[in-house]
Amino acid sequence: MELRFILKQLILPPGGLLLLIVLAWLCAAARPRLAVVLLVLGVGGLWLMSLPVVVEYAARALEREPALAEAQWAALAQRGEVIVVLGSGREEADPAWGGDQPSATALERLRYAARLHRASGLPLLISGGLHYGEPPSEAGLMAEVLQRDFGVATRWREERSRTTWENAQYTAQLLREQGIGRVVLVTQAAHMPRSRWCFERAGLEVVAAPLGFLGVANARPLGGWLPEGKAFWQSTRLLNEALGLAVYPLLYR
After folding, report:
1. Does domain 70-211 have CATH number 3.40.50.720?
2. pTM above 0.85?
3. Number of C-beta neighbours around residue 206 at 10 A
4. Domain limits of the chain?
5. What does the alpha-carbon distance between residue 247 and residue 164 come to, in Å, rounded to a whole number?
6. Closest to 89 in 3D by CA, of 116, 50, 129, 62
7. Region 208-229 average pLDDT
8. How confident is the model over 96-132, as pLDDT tens digits?
9. φ, ψ dihedrals at 161, nearest 5°
10. What pLDDT does residue 40 have?
């Protein structure tokens, strides 16, 4: 496993917040005031990130691209040349399926891409490499599910990428060989700003097709002020996107 993935797990919640709590315990005797500050930050961060209302308003700041109305789907044939679906991880060794499967968010993307394909007739490209260096590729898994469960064939697979930046670079390389420069990009709404930035830097014209919006009324008890495990997971993904938007322009030109 690459060092950057280990560091990411340690820094991003819950790892980073748990480290603050551990540091508070270590500092309690020698630096009690610092310990209190660290404890408040750690516990307070865990609480805030578990609130659906925090997810709702944080997502609104990231989800900048509007959803495509169903009435627009058929017209995508005039706006783009291929539907590009980005990988989103996998669930390993599920005995119900006899092996690895695309993650829940990847399945969301496949379902949406299948509908866009049927409405527009555009071919599909799936981009996603090896997960932590282990085969099969995300693109391979997703293409199999798309064919078997949705009855839709994948025209191209990009199976080398490990990051969103590499998704864009390797996809652009593959499509340039086909004379294609306009893509309909399918990914989660919060991931779309970073994805669009990467694909446009790779020289492709992007039509955004976001899904999985979180910045909508959460319809939770007490307006979303009760902690929820699902909300914590969603907050972590949103924080990852916020950091990505800040860091990518520094890492890539």
Report:
1. no
2. yes
3. 21
4. 3-62+226-251, 70-211
5. 12
6. 129
7. 92
8. 999 999 999 999 999 999 999 999 999 999 999 987 7
9. -75, 150
10. 97
- Secondary structure of the chain in HEC code, one letter for each residue: CCHHHHHHHHHCCCHHHHHHHHHHHHHCCCCHHHHHHHHHHHHHHHHHHCCHHHHHHHHHHHCCCCCCCHHHCCCHHHHCCEEEEECCCEEEEECCCCEEEECHHHHHHHHHHHHHHHHHCCCEEEECCEECCEEEEHHHHHHHHHHHHHCCCCCEEECCCCCHHHHHHHHHHHHHHCCCCEEEEEEECCCHHHHHHHHHHCCCEEEEEEECCCCCCCCCHHHHCCCCHHHHHHHHHHHHHHHHHHHHHHHCC
Residue 104 identity (one-letter amino acid): A
The token pair at 182 is 């306009």
Q: Express each pLDDT in 42-94 by its tens digit.
A: 999 999 999 999 999 999 999 999 999 999 999 999 999 999 999 999 999 99
- Provide the residue type at 126 as one letter: I
